[in-house]
Specification:
- The chain is mainly alpha-helical.
- The chain has one helix at residues 7-59.
- The longest helix is centred in the middle third of the chain and has 53 residues, at 7-59.
């Protein structure tokens, strides 16, 4: 008994895996960027702004 080829099934699974991986990766990247990174950059900018104001106040 010969075995039937499974080329179509493999191709569908490949595209499902690729699209699922890209979708999960992009959503995880967006969650990291908007959930953590932008807040961390805002804190950093506030710190350096405060430091610069203290320097200017000390120079006067």
């Amino acid at each position: 008994m010969p075995i039937a080829p499974i080329t179509g099934m493999l191709r569908k699974r490949f595209w499902l895996d690729i699209s699922t991986g890209l979708g999960l990766g992009l959503s995880a990247g967006a969650a990291f960027w908007y959930g953590y990174e932008l807040k961390a950059r805002a804190r950093q900018e506030e710190f350096y702004l405060k430091l610069e104001k203290e320097k200017l106040a000390a120079a006067q």
